[in-house]
């Protein structure tokens, strides 16, 4: 169920990128897509009623492995969020420069390249 | 091997040093010279390092942690072949940039981004696990988005944004595919996943992730129907960057990554890829015929040449893969040479329109001669390298029982010759225009790097000799064909 919602989020993002005419809305579409995929990664490592993956001295290793959530996807998501931030920042920077040149955020008006 | 991480560390450190030095030094001329020297020394060092690694296959465990817990760098025949090509083209484009980039401001930012792009590409080639593959892919891509828009003119920004949206979606798909694989195997190391693959019959998770990988790398490698960004993005970048993008970037983050994933990790063989290659080849050729902007024409030609490479790979026979890898090396040499030539012409004439050139052989003999060599190589005329690699791909098509594909490859080659003859006729032969009488030959560093590349167009033909072939290309072909070797690599220190 929650996986289906996560895929819906990704598809909403793809819809935003492909169908919207405004540069800012395209960027928002990309952000939604990125978040959808991050959510998917987190879900892979998730376990219902799981504990934080920190091994205590008093804890038995087997019960720890059976109850804790998977820490690796969380580490991956951290990296992926940072990368997403860099890409989004560059996109916004480019969009503002494009607005300076063309005076518009509308992709149908930004069409000097042809052929 | 202790040397492997330096392919990532050196350019990464260099890109920060360039910015740092800039804030220390005051005089602009000294600053630019120091930045030029620093960046080129780093790239020369890297190129020499690649040459010391011939015939070795080894892995490096970051921090001493062995896989599957640690991260590893892997070097085998395939990644070594690509490493030599990437660092060679980076060095020569770097030498070319010394003169060429005097047209632009912000030299330090240029070098920082250029070295970051090199970091990303070297990382993709060496990385032994999927998540690092993704991270390095993003480093290379983000640097290239910024470099495409480096001139900050209206067209360049537009192309950069277009490229960026496509590239970002492709990267997201790679991450998604990696996530799906992780959910299936609970591991990220490529060798371990390769060993855990169930052989012939894939379940739907594996099929889904394979589909995502093929789509994503096809976007990155600009295969038709995902090619729309390339003819905008590659011409918009400064010429040395176009040479890097068309010559090695699409091959590294597109073709190399695709080969690694399909052949080594999934061990998946299908004629589908060969058909994709043929479609790319023909669409690229036909669209290139009508262009009058020289760099746009070259960009379309990149699409068609990548089609040849994918056609060879898709056949899956040893000869087909041999031809594909040979053509990959050749393409990186002659396509970067052609882009650098177009840069030389732009440097003097300030135009990319073929119709306003003409007779340039008289005033720019070095550029004219080298571009003739490159045009003959890319159109596949003997004794230049392009002839041999295309011939091998065509023979491989016939040998593996696909004569129709061979016919398409021949037609593509003839049409390539047609549009490069058009370039030669309009730009370098014919009558010199009155306003172009005062044009001089390109400056020293630019001429030097194109002459070296033209010499390489001839020299790489000798790769076919058995002695050289066994040293350079055969290990790469074996690496593609034997996933077992790849699985064993993680255990060799």
Topology:
The complex is a heterodimer of chains A (115) and B (493).
Chain A: H1 2-19, H2 23-45, H3 61-67, H4 71-102
Chain B: H1 6-24, H2 28-51, E1 58-61, E2 72-75, H3 77-100, H4 107-126, H5 130-148, H6 154-185, H7 190-196, H8 204-220, H9 230-236, H10 239-265, H11 272-289, H12 294-315, H13 318-349, H14 360-363, H15 365-379, H16 385-399, H17 403-428, H18 444-459, H19 466-481, H20 483-489
Antiparallel strand pairs in B: 1-2
Describe this structure as you would to a colleague:
- The complex is a heterodimer of chains A (115) and B (493).
- With 115 residues, chain A is mainly alpha-helical.
- Chain A has a single domain, classed as Orthogonal Bundle (Helix Hairpins), CATH 1.10.287.
- Chain A is 70% helix and 0% strand.
- The longest helix of chain A is centred in the C-terminal third of the chain and has 32 residues, at 71-102.
- Chain A starts with a helix and ends in a 13-residue tail after the last helix.
- The mean pLDDT of chain B is 90.
- The termini of chain B are close together.
- Chain B is globular.
- Chain B is mainly alpha-helical and 493 residues long.
- Chain B has one domain (6-489).
- The chains are: A mainly alpha (115), B mainly alpha (493).
- The interface between A and B is large, with 34 and 37 residues.
Task: Give a short synopsis of this structure.
Chain A has helices spanning 2-19, 23-45, 61-67, 71-102.
Distance, first to last CA of chain A: 45 Å
Given as residue ranges, the uncertain stretches of chain B (5+ residues, pLDDT < 50) are none
- Report strand % of chain A: under 5%
Oligomeric state as shown: heterodimer
Round the Cα radius of gyration of chain B to an integer and report it: 21 Å
List keywords for this structure.
heterodimer, A: mainly alpha, Helix Hairpins, about 0% strand, elongated, B: about 500 residues, mainly alpha
């Amino acid at each position: 169920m929650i996986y289906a919602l996560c895929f819906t989020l990704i598809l909403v993002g793809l819809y935003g990128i492909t169908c919207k005419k405004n540069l800012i809305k395209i960027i928002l579409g990309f952000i939604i897509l990125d978040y959808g995929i991050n959510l998917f990664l987190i879900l892979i490592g998730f376990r219902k009623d799981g504990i934080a993956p920190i091994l205590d001295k008093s804890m038995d290793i087997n019960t720890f492995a059976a109850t804790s959530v998977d820490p690796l996807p969380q580490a991956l998501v951290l990296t992926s969020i940072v990368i997403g931030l860099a890409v989004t920042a560059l996109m916004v920077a480019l969009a503002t420069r494009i607005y300076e040149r063309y005076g518009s955020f509308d992709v149908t008006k930004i069409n000097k390249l042809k052929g | 091997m202790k040397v492997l991480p330096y392919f990532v560390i050196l350019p990464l450190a260099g890109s920060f040093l360039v910015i740092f030095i800039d804030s220390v030094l005051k005089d602009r001329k000294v600053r630019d010279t120091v930045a030029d020297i620093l960046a080129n020394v780093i790239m020369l060092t890297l190129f020499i390092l690649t040459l010391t690694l011939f015939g070795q296959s080894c892995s490096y465990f970051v921090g001493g942690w062995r896989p599957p817990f640690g991260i590893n760098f892997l070097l085998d025949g395939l990644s070594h072949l690509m490493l030599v090509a990437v660092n060679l083209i980076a060095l020569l484009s770097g030498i070319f940039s010394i003169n060429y980039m005097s047209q632009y401001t912000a030299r330090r930012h240029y070098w920082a981004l250029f070295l970051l792009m090199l970091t990303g590409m070297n990382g993709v080639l060496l990385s032994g696990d999927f998540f690092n593959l993704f991270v390095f892919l993003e480093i290379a891509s983000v640097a290239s988005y910024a470099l495409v828009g480096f001139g900050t003119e209206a067209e360049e920004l537009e192309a950069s944004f277009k490229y960026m949206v496509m590239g970002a979606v492709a990267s997201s798909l790679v991450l998604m595919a990696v996530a799906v694989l992780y959910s299936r195997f609970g591991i990220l190391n490529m060798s371990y996943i390769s060993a855990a693959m169930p052989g012939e019959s894939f379940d739907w998770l594996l099929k889904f992730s394979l589909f995502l990988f093929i789509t994503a790398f096809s976007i990155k490698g600009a295969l038709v129907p995902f090619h729309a960004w390339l003819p905008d993005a590659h011409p918009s970048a400064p010429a040395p960057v176009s040479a890097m993008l068309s010559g090695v970037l699409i091959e590294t983050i597109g073709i190399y990554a695709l080969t690694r994933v399909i052949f080594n990790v999934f061990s998946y063989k299908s004629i589908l890829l060969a058909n994709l290659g043929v479609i790319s080849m023909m669409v690229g050729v036909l669209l290139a015929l009508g262009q009058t902007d020289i760099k746009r024409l070259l960009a379309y030609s990149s699409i068609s040449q990548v089609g040849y490479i994918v056609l060879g790979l898709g056949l899956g026979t040893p000869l087909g893969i041999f031809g594909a890898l040979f053509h990959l090396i050749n393409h990186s040499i002659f396509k970067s040479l052609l882009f650098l030539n177009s840069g030389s012409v732009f440097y003097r004439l300030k135009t990319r329109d073929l119709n306003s050139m003409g007779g340039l052989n008289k005033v720019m003999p070095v550029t004219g001669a080298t571009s003739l060599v490159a045009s003959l190589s890319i159109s596949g005329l003997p004794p230049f390298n392009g002839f041999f690699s295309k011939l091998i791909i065509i023979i491989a098509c016939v040998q593996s029982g696909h004569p129709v594909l061979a016919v398409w490859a021949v037609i593509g080659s003839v049409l390539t010759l047609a549009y490069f003859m058009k370039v030669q006729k309009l730009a370098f032969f014919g009558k010199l225009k009155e306003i172009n009488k005062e044009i001089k030959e390109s400056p020293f560093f630019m001429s030097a790097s194109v002459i070296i590349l033209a010499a390489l167009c001839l020299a790489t033909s000798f790769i076919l000799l058995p002695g050289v072939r066994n040293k350079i290309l055969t290990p790469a072909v074996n690496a593609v064909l034997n996933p077992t070797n790849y699985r064993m690599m993680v255990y060799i220190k």
